[in-house]
Amino acid sequence: MKETDREAVATAVQRVAGMLQRPDQLEKVEQYRRREARKKASVEARLKAAIQSQLDGVRTGLSQLHTALSDVQDIQRSLADVSKDWRQSINTIESLRDVKDAVVRHSQLAAAVENLKNIFSVPEIVRETQDLIEQGELLQAHRKLMDLECSRDGLMYEQYRMDSGNARDMTLIHSYFGSTQGLSDELAKQLWVVLQRSLVTVRRDPTLLVSVVRIIEREEKIDRRILDRKKQTGFIPPGRPKNWKEKMFAILERTVTTRIEGTQADTRESDRMWLVRHLEIIRKCVLDDLIVARNLMVQCFPPRYQIFRSLLNVYHQALSTRMQELASEDLEANEIVSLLTWVLNTYTSAEMMGNVELAPEVDVGVLEPLLSPNVVSELLDTYMSTLTSNIIAWLRKALETDKKDWVKETEPEADQDGYYQTTLPAIVFQMFEQNLQVAAQISEDLKTKVLVLCLQQMNSFLSRYKEEVQLYREEHLRKRQHPHCYVQYMIALINNCQTLKESIVSLKRKYLQHDTEEGVSLSQPSMDGLLDAIAEEGCSSLLEEVFLDLEQHLNELMTKKWLLGSNAVDIICVTVEDYFNDFARIKKPYRKRMITEAHRRVVQEYLRAVLQKRISFRSAEERKEGAERMGREAEQLRFLFCKLASGFGEEMDGHCDTIVAVAEVIKLTDPSLLYLEVSTLVSKYPDIRDDHIGALLAVRGDASRDMKQTIIETLEQGPAQASPDYVPIFRDIAVPSLNVAKLLK
């Protein structure tokens, strides 16, 4: 109690603290006190009412217990009186045994007299029943059959009661009514025929189906009555129980199974689409049958039969069995897809079990799967394995077909923008699209797996593709006149790389729900790298073509012929421009790289010509003339490459400025300023080496040995640092057969 009081006080303190948080609330203390007093009074009143109610209930319970005790005592006295009377009447019952025996004999004789007419008319009733069965009058035939069975069963029961051990008389009765069992079997056959054709019968003659159901219902009632009598007497007539209701459902189940199996009209040998046709026929048949069952058959059966639910379960089980059989066959990849699509999607769709005409009785959400997860998994594994082999074969065949086009005498086709291309990307991604569309029909998970597979195989394929492009390039280098359209097809192969990159991105965007799905996004960088490598090799190969044609003219640079007025740079510009007119059919990302690389290499070759000491100027006039010519040609090259790059909206790198800077060193008239000019050159181009400086000073022809040595040694003491965005231009330029020591002499 003390703990409770402390908790109550703490709660009260908390409430008061909550009420009195601001000074102005002190004015309402009296108002709060009255409100709490009213609440306390209300709680006390409710508590008193509850206690009073409990007391009234206890008082009522005690009163009822007293009444029950009085009743039990009265019943106990009554039972004692009954027991006393029963003991006194035992002797009286024993004296009436003879009367009881007489009643039994009278009952037997009365039954015999009652059945005499039926006994004598048994042959006639048998004939009439047989005729009625043959005429299809099943209800009337069953009525007469019931009369025969009733007479037989009545006589046999009386004989069983009078002398159950007399087998001869029982056999005699059974023999006399022997045709009854045959009639019952014959009638049953007719019933089963009607039930086997129930879906047709219910449309044409529903009354016949109703008659069959009524007969089965009668037999079920007789079975129940006879089984109840067996529990009391131990007697059961021959042929009972018939269990026609159970047989009816068994017949329906066999009929459904046979109907589904009978829908296979073709085999793989006769029709490649045999499974698709088979599944479509099953779909139509099952849907039509269930619609008929829901709309018509339910009217012919008692509600407790739940005939539609029973038929639905029968059809579902039969379909499951059939699907298991099909799954166990050696199916091809397209057949596995057809089967899984039908099982996982079509079966529960609006085209079948989800049809509005079957709602709401059919809830696709509670239907068991036609194939177990293990079977589905095995089929998917088989499909993925087969698909992997097929994709590898398709890619190999596509590459072989594409390679045949590379050596054609005619130019490759162009797309709508005029870019050369081959059919390889379209063929490959059309194949991928088809397989992904098929996989998407089955499940999202399979679609993702197929996408991963396609990308993985694409990655492997690109390695083979790269090797074939290299072989194509090497074969051309051995025999430059073959193939005739090498440049055009190499352009197409470069464009294929860009098309493949775009197609991969498009494929992932279309068929990938989340970019972060495992195993998919990781494959993109490696494929981009491979495609860029293939394209760069192709671009390099095309540039090799250009520079093989330029080689003769590049060799004329910085020679006596050049100084006297060679048109080598004019030819170089015309040749490069002519080639790049053809290269205009290369897609922009790679064409831009080619222009940049061609620009760098032309300038580099020009500088190599300068540093190979093909000429050594003998006078200031020659140096001035050569430097001015170098400046003009640098502007000529700059104009060419700016013109080629004009379509990209960006300025070209200042590689041509390097020629101008070198020309300034050559042009310098005051040798005392040579160190300063060379220092400026080295600071602008940090990759320039000692041998380059030595060769450049040798070209001037006026630098003394001491001056050369001083300049080189001074520059070596403080090498310039290259900026991060600097593109090396001198690094790959070798000065053959010369070294610094020789240049200083």
Keywords:
mainly alpha; 74% helix; single chain; Exocyst complex component 3; disordered C terminus; 745 residues
Structure in words:
This protein has 745 residues and is an all-alpha fold. It has helices spanning 2-19, 29-94, 97-120, 122-135, 138-162, 167-176, 179-196, 198-204, 206-233, 244-261, 274-295, 307-328, 333-346, 373-406, 424-442, 444-478, 486-511, 523-554, 560-565, 568-583, 588-611, 620-644, 656-667, 674-684, 690-700, 705-717, 740-744. Helix 13 (333-346) crosses helix 15 (424-442) and helix 16 packs antiparallel against helix 17.
Which helices and strands occur, and which strands form pairs?
Layout lengths: L1 H18 L9 H66 L2 H24 L1 H14 L2 H25 L4 H10 L2 H18 L1 H7 L1 H28 L10 H18 L12 H22 L11 H22 L4 H14 L26 H34 L17 H19 L1 H35 L7 H26 L11 H32 L5 H6 L2 H16 L4 H24 L8 H25 L11 H12 L6 H11 L5 H11 L4 H13 L22 H5 L1
Helix pairs in contact: 3-5, 4-5, 4-7, 5-6, 5-7, 5-9, 7-10, 8-9, 10-12, 11-12, 13-14, 13-15, 14-15, 14-16, 15-16, 15-17, 16-17, 16-18, 17-18, 18-20, 18-21, 20-22, 21-22, 21-23, 22-23, 23-24, 23-25
Family: Belongs to the SEC6 family.
InterPro entries: EXOC3/Sec6, EXOC3/Sec6_C
Protein name: Exocyst complex component 3
Shape: elongated
Write down the Rg. Answer: 53 Å
Which residues form runs of ≥5 with pLDDT under 50? 738-745
Compute the number of helices: 27
Protein name: Exocyst complex component 3
InterPro entries: EXOC3/Sec6, EXOC3/Sec6_C
Organism: Balaenoptera acutorostrata
Pfam family, one: Sec6
